[in-house]
Task: inverse folding
């Protein structure tokens, strides 16, 4: 490490008060970055394989050998937490990408074309709004089986209307702006203007909203695993870890449940801070 | 802010005089109600199509889908085929299902060998009790947090409330459940860890922790909406007018601020009902309660699709109906919204 360590501390101390939100923002980014790196490099970071059993330490507290203790089967909690970050982060990432793509395309279509397409899509969104995302995910599991695939697809569909409604409102406002008329006068086609000029203009605001969605989806997918309907054991997953630790909690062993619970809360808080900061910086929102 | 209080109060009086004249039974009002009910019926119809025909998205024949994980004996196949009319064309199967659903007949449960409606009926009281207790908690805690924050806006108490709400908002219900069980049930032993109890009083006692766990996220929602809605009203001119007329602060807050702030709060509470019903699946699972939420999870687990279909349809119906009720009662609470709606 070439950078002397005090630099960051000094920077933080010298930072003007106005940048306090930025510090919180930096910490939040740090949390997400650490979790992401841990997930990607799990085999190198984790001290043990996620399902390695240590019979000498069952429900053990933190120690030098097991920093966060072990669960009821003697598995290292830190290792399971690190490996569990993979499914915990991958699921919401896929949902956010899927719902953003579907939602932006449909929102662009509805907002740009208007008319009967808008009316029909509006009715479709209304119906989808009536299905809470977790309920749609549970129904998908009932149809297609447990795991990550069916809930991720269902959640992508469930979140798409939120993205679409926002995109539609933004596109509708954007369509009346002079630059659109200017392109039209120059003979550019409607589809070209919509995709190459309007879509990039609404993307930052939609992106900030999608970042906020990441936190909700993470909590819901973890909840689904907690119900035993999501990621299946022996794959380590935060929600599934809490589920498996439930009987231990009744017996007074809180750590195996608290460790993944804290991880979920930490990531949700961090992602929400990032999302809110992003939407503040963009200064967007739905124009009236 | 320049304020001509005379024009404002005249306008307010005019608006007040206008409201009863645009009464609930005017032609526009009736048309509005009819339109809402039509929208409600259409949404429910489309939702039922989705719930019913979702089964057809699964590749393979419907008999083996419904009998997954069970021994497909010839009798069972014949029984399921006859019961669901699986040899009929899909639209006829749908009409049969819809007709049954409208009369409360959702077919037979595959895991219990009982009517789906009976199975759900046995589990419904626990969930309803849970939702009601949670709803009371949300109303009390969420509303008072929002009101206290709004009346102290910018002051430490406001910031404290907002920080508290932000912290709570990051606690998913399964985390809340586990923490509450660990602290109050296991460590302190004040409440049971498991089950929904016998009789009314015992049930309430058993549902204290679950209803708190269920309420957490929604307290945040109601609290934040109440605060921002109240803050918005507090800055309005009519509040200044009321204050300058010499009304007591409590009266101004109650009759001019809070009542006007109710609209957004009501809208949120419409979303809340479906949210509570769905989130109760997680809370019921965590506390081992025999409600429809845990029944839903168990039915998914035991491949009992008719029960899943029925519960999904119930939750969606509850959501749509409650939202329609909120929509329809809004003009009664806030006459301006009716005037605005009929002007549209």
Result:
């Amino acid at each position: 490490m070439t950078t002397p360590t005090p630099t960051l501390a000094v920077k933080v101390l010298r930072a003007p008060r106005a940048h306090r939100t930025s510090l919180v923002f930096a910490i939040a980014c740090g949390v997400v970055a650490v979790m992401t790196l841990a997930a990607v490099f799990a085999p190198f970071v984790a001290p043990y394989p996620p399902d390695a059993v240590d019979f000498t330490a069952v429900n053990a507290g933190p120690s030098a050998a097991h920093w966060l203790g072990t669960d009821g089967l003697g598995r290292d909690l830190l290792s399971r937490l690190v490996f569990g970050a993979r499914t915990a982060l991958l699921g919401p990432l896929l949902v956010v990408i899927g719902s953003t793509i579907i939602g932006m395309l449909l929102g662009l279509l509805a907002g740009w074309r208007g008319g009967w397409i808008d009316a029909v899509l509006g009715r479709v969104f209304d119906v989808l709004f009536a299905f809470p995302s977790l309920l749609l995910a549970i129904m998908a599991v009932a149809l297609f089986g447990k795991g990550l695939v069916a809930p991720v697809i269902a959640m992508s569909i469930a979140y798409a209307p939120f993205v679409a409604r926002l995109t539609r409102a933004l596109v509708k406002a954007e369509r009346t702006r002079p630059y659109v008329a200017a392109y039209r006068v120059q003979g550019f086609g409607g589809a070209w203007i919509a995709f190459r000029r309007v879509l990039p203009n609404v993307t930052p605001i939609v992106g900030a909203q999608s970042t906020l969605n990441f936190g909700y989806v993470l909590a819901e997918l973890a909840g689904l695993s907690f119900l035993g309907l999501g990621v299946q054991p022996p794959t380590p997953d935060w929600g599934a870890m809490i589920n498996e630790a439930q009987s231990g909690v009744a017996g007074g062993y809180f750590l195996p449940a608290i460790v993944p619970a804290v991880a979920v809360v930490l990531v949700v808080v961090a992602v929400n801070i990032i999302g809110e900061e992003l939407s503040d910086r963009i200064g967007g929102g739905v124009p009236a | 802010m320049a304020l001509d209080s005379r024009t404002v109060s005249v306008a307010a009086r005019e608006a007040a005089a206008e409201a009863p004249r645009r009464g609930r039974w005017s032609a526009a009002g009736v048309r509005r109600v009819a339109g809402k009910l039509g929208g409600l019926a259409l949404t429910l119809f489309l939702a039922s199509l989705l719930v019913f025909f979702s089964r057809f998205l699964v590749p393979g024949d419907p008999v083996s889908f419904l009998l997954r994980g069970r021994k497909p004996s010839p009798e069972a196949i014949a029984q399921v085929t006859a019961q669901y009319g699986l040899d009929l064309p899909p639209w006829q199967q749908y009409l049969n299902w819809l007709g049954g659903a409208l009369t409360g007949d959702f077919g037979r449960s595959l895991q219990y060998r009982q009517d789906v409606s009976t199975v759900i009926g046995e589990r419904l009281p626990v969930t309803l009790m849970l939702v009601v207790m949670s709803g009371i908690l949300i109303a009390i805690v969420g509303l008072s947090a929002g009101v206290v924050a709004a009346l102290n806006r910018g002051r430490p108490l406001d910031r404290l409330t907002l920080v508290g709400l932000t912290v709570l908002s990051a606690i998913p219900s399964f985390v809340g459940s586990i923490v509450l069980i660990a602290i109050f049930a296991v460590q302190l032993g004040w409440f049971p860890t498991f089950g929904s109890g016998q009789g009314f009083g015992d049930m309430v006692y058993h549902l204290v922790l679950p209803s708190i766990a269920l309420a957490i996220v929604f307290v945040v929602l109601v609290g934040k909406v109440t605060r921002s809605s109240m803050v918005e009203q507090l800055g309005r001119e009519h509040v200044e007018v009321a204050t300058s007329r010499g009304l007591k602060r409590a009266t101004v807050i109650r009759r001019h601020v809070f009542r006007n702030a109710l609209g957004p709060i009501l809208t949120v509470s419409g979303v809340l009902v479906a949210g509570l019903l769905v989130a109760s699946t997680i809370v019921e699972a965590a506390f081992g309660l025999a409600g429809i939420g845990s029944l839903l999870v168990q039915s998914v687990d035991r491949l009992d699709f008719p029960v899943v279909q029925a519960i999904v349809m119930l939750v969606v119906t509850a959501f749509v109906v409650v939202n329609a009720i909120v929509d329809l009662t809004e003009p009664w609470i806030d006459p301006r919204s009716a005037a605005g709606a009929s002007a549209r």
Remarks:
- The first helix of chain A runs from residue 6 to 14.
- The mean pLDDT of chain A is 83.
- The CA atoms of residues 87 and 152 of chain A lie 11 Å apart.
